[in-house]
Amino acid sequence: MRSLFRSLIIAALMISSCTSTKKGSNSAIGPSFDLQGHRGARGLMPENTIPAMKVAIDHGVTTVELDVVISKDNKVVVSHDPYFNELITTTPEGKHLTKKEAEELVLYQMMYDEIKKYDVGLKPHPNFPKQQKIKVHKPLLSELIDSVEDYAKSKGKSIRYNIEIKSKKSGDGVNHPAPENFSELVLAVIKGKNILNRTTIQSFDIRPLQYIHKAHPVVTLSYLVEKTTQSIEDQFAALGFQPQTYSPNYAILTKEAVAYCHQRKIKVLPWTVNNLSEMNKLIELGVDGIISDYPDLFAQLGVRK
Ligand code: G3P
Ligand code: CA
């Protein structure tokens, strides 16, 4: 009887271990793993728009990633580029633009009422053929937050924001305000919408990160790195402080960098990972989340709820 009981327990344990490996191939992924929709869900909907954020939420992201710039009237506008990108823009007259024409339309030199007249959702995107085509404008950050909050609430969810300040030294005063002013404008919107405790500010530009760290130490910060010849130690030495997150281009991420960050309790969040095999390799490496244009792929990672 006792041996029958023992056999039953062993069988139950075997079944349960088979089920958990089948559920997802990555036992390392837990409920705190951060699934981020890049520019909302760029592979599926026009980038950095409200519909893209909603689709990302539909696909179960924990965080929406987006980029911000500043208009001439100092409004915080959701946009990756400091000008209208010819790949996604249709003018108010219904025309497409050459690269040169588009880059002359600098958002920091335009009032938001004018920016709003341009469409950024109708033109087929050469790199994202699955992207649904809809008429849509570049939203204000405030407008986007209102919509995301309402939509998430209607689905019984609470969403985090990973907001990128798009600046570089050569663009100061031309494409955007100086880092202090840029940071203050963005933080004023975030504080006004009461989402600071669910927001990370990210940037490739170390200046806004350094400014916010000093002036607003409670703000969660993420250090973006695209390509570098610097060691991980030198990258952090250049920043001069320890942010909550290190967010590299996934192609440059090494096991040593993950270990360096984790020893210091810094999270590792690679971008922009658009296929399952790369996602799985990064999960094996021990990353704390993934940023993807295709949040529809996340369901196949087997994240434990
Ligand atoms: O979150 C990082 C990632 O968004 C950086 O790339 O150029 O798409 O803003 P980019
Ligand atoms: Ca970004």
Overall shape = globular
| Mean pLDDT level | 92
User: Number of DSSP helices?
Assistant: 10
- Helix/strand structural class: alpha/beta
Query: What is the helix/strand order?
Result: HEHEEHHHEHEHEHEHEHE
Number of strands: 9
Helix content: 25-40%
* Unreliable runs: 4-24
Please give the alpha-carbon distance between the first and last residues: 38 Å
Instruction: Kindly provide the radius of gyration, computed on alpha-carbon positions and rounded to a whole number of angstroms.
Output: 21 Å
Q: Please report which band the strand proportion falls in: under 5%, 5-15%, 15-25%, 25-35%, 35-45% or over 45%.
A: 5-15%
Instruction: Specify the oligomeric state.
Output: single chain
Question: Largest beta sheet, briefly?
Answer: 9 strands, mixed
Tell me what you see in this structure:
With 305 residues, this protein is of the alpha/beta class. It has helices spanning 2-23, 50-58, 99-104, 112-115, 141-154, 179-192, 206-215, 232-239, 255-263, 276-285, and strands at 34-37, 63-70, 76-78, 160-165, 199-203, 220-225, 245-248, 267-268, 289-292. Strands 1, 2, 3, 4, 5, 6, 7, 8 and 9 form a nine-stranded mixed β-sheet that branches. Helix 2 (50-58) packs parallel to helix 5 (141-154) and helix 6 packs across helix 7. Residues 4-24 have low confidence and may be disordered. The structure holds SN-glycerol-3-phosphate and calcium ion. SN-glycerol-3-phosphate (G3P) binds next to strand 2.
Brief digest:
The protein has about 300 residues and is α/β, with parallel strands linked by helices. It is about 35% helix and about 15% strand. Strands 1, 2, 3, 4, 5, 6, 7, 8 and 9 form a 9-stranded mixed sheet that branches.
